[in-house]
């Protein structure tokens, strides 16, 4: 067992973990932060995307000890301080950017990084950036629409394809 | 997952010492190895994470040679290798944004996946693989799929790439894995052209000598007219036959030359 200490959603946490503990397991089982979902568990689907030191990564493919000392943000850390939904989260609700909701945490975490890097992405840029996030409901259209709306762009002209 | 220990050395020397343990294996960004561990395709008893070794990270340029630390992520190469645009573009198209934030050039080069992108860039760019013990010329480095000249306790500390006059990489992507179904990297130097192919051969990445000879005389897509690689020895799987892959090699080589010219 190894002691790991990191900051998760602004709070310092410290736990004893075994070497093979994945970040998904650390967050979900040790910290009970179950918003980070496990879809494929092989770094394909993106349901487990979190931010580690400001970078989007797939938590299923990183060990907890590798995040020792890191600043981690999960979907639970994305709402506003008063608990209300962030602009991006609210846009997902307003534009029906989720169906079953399983992929949504990863979609939101990935989209948040996209909008940091590119504040007004085109539809093509959004779809390209979401390459590693899979929606089994195939609800991509409204996800793209929600992300573009969250960036402040007019999406009224975007019709379903 | 099965039980193993993981160590997180801060220096190459400590990493090499840790790799001396029985059944130890280096862990780069983990984007291939961690899924492999879950499938028990690899079962080391000790993993030595290279992610916290600062001395093998970063990109420098000197006298037309780009030196990229083995622990540099694909995302960092995509953003930081502006003096070699074809390489930056290749790095920016590996996997997806989250994978690019973890996966490293050293990990890719050491793993030598037959469908990975970096081996094509390294082979076409006359790279030198720098390890903790020696420098290996790229033509001596790749030894068939998933096989390299690296010894058990050898770590790729850097990859040196002479920047070509012109270069481009064309990847026909396998949409599920985002690896190359076939990828062709073309690099033109003052004294000749190199063409490296990934994704296609059962022997892993290879140089297409006929195309190199034709392009060294005339660096244009039409110089490749009539040239083809044999389908024998090409990978056949549910994504494409050997004949299809052989056809793609010629098509993508032309496109790469057109993009580079």
UniProtKB/TrEMBL annotation, chain A:
Q: Keywords, A to Z?
A: 2Fe-2S, Iron, Iron-sulfur, Metal-binding, Oxidoreductase
Q: Residue ranges of the 2Fe-2S ferredoxin-type domain?
A: 2-78
The organism's place on the tree of life at top rank: Bacteria
Under Gene Ontology molecular function, one entry of this record is: metal ion binding
Q: Does the keyword Ion transport apply?
A: no
Which Pfam family is one of those matched by this entry?
Answer: Fer2
> Key word Lipid biosynthesis present in the record?
no
Q: What name has this protein been given in UniProt?
A: Carbon-monoxide dehydrogenase small subunit
The record lists the organism as: Salipiger aestuarii
UniProtKB/TrEMBL annotation, chain B:
Residue ranges of the FAD-binding PCMH-type domain?
Answer: 1-166
SUPFAM superfamilies noted in UniProt: CO dehydrogenase flavoprotein C-terminal domain-like, FAD-binding/transporter-associated domain-like
Query: Any idea which UniProt keywords this protein has?
Result: FAD, Flavoprotein, Oxidoreductase
Which Gene3D superfamilies does the entry link to? 3.30.465.10, CO dehydrogenase flavoprotein, C-terminal domain (3.30.390.50), Uridine Diphospho-n-acetylenolpyruvylglucosamine Reductase, domain 2 (3.30.43.10)
Top-level taxon in the UniProt lineage? Bacteria
Q: Which InterPro entries match?
A: CO_DH_flav_C, CO_DH_flav_C_dom_sf, Diverse_Substr_Oxidored, FAD-bd_PCMH, FAD-bd_PCMH-like_sf, FAD-bd_PCMH_sub1, FAD-bd_PCMH_sub2, Mopterin_DH_FAD-bd
Q: Which organism is it from?
A: Salipiger aestuarii
* UniProt-recorded name of the protein: Carbon-monoxide dehydrogenase medium subunit
Record's signal peptide: none
What are the protein's GO molecular function terms? FAD binding; oxidoreductase activity
> Which Pfam families does the record cross-reference, listed alphabetically?
FAD_binding_5
């Amino acid at each position: 067992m190894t002691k790991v200490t990191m900051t998760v959603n602004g709070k310092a946490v410290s736990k004893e973990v075994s070497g093979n503990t994945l970040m998904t397991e650390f967050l979900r089982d040790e910290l009970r932060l179950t918003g980070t979902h496990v879809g494929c568990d092989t770094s394909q689907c993106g349901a487990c995307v979190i931010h580690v030191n400001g970078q989007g990564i797939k938590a299923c493919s990183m060990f907890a000890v590798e995040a020792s000392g890191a600043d981690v943000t999960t979907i639970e850390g994305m709402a506003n301080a008063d608990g209300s939904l962030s602009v991006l989260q609210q846009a997902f609700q307003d534009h029906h950017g989720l169906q079953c909701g399983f992929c949504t945490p990863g979609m939101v975490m990935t989209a948040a990084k996209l909008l940091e890097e590119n504040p007004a992405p085109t539809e093509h840029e959004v779809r390209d950036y979401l390459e590693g996030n899979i929606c089994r409901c195939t609800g991509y259209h409204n996800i793209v629409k929600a992300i573009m709306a969250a960036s402040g762009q007019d999406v009224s002209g975007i019709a379903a394809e | 997952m099965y039980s193993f220990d993981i160590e997180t050395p801060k220096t190459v020397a400590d990493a090499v010492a840790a790799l001396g343990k029985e059944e130890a294996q280096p862990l780069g960004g983990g984007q291939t190895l961690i899924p492999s561990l879950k499938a028990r395709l690899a079962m080391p008893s000790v993993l030595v994470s290279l992610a916290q070794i600062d001395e093998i990270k970063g990109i420098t340029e000197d006298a037309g040679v780009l030196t990229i630390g083995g622990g540099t992520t694909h995302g960092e190469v995509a953003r930081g290798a502006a003096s070699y645009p074809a390489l930056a573009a290749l790095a920016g198209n590996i996997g997806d944004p989250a994978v690019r934030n973890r996966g490293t050039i050293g990990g890719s080069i050491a793993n030598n996946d037959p469908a990975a992108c970096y081996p094509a860039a390294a082979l076409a760019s006359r790279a030198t693989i720098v390890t903790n013990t020696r420098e290996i010329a790229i033509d001596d480095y790749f030894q068939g799929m998933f096989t390299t000249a690296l010894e058990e306790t050898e770590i790729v500390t850097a990859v040196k790439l002479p920047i070509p006059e012109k270069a481009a990489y064309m990847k026909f992507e396998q949409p599920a894995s985002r690896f190359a179904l076939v990828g062709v990297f073309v690099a033109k130097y003052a004294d000749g052209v190199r063409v490296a192919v990934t994704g296609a051969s059962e022997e892993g990445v290879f140089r297409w000598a006929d195309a190199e000879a034709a392009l060294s005389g005339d660096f244009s897509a039409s110089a490749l007219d009539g040239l083809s690689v044999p389908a024998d020895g090409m990978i056949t799987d549910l994504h494409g036959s050997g004949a299809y892959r052989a056809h793609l090699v010629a098509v993508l080589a032309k496109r790469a030359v057109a993009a580079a010219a």
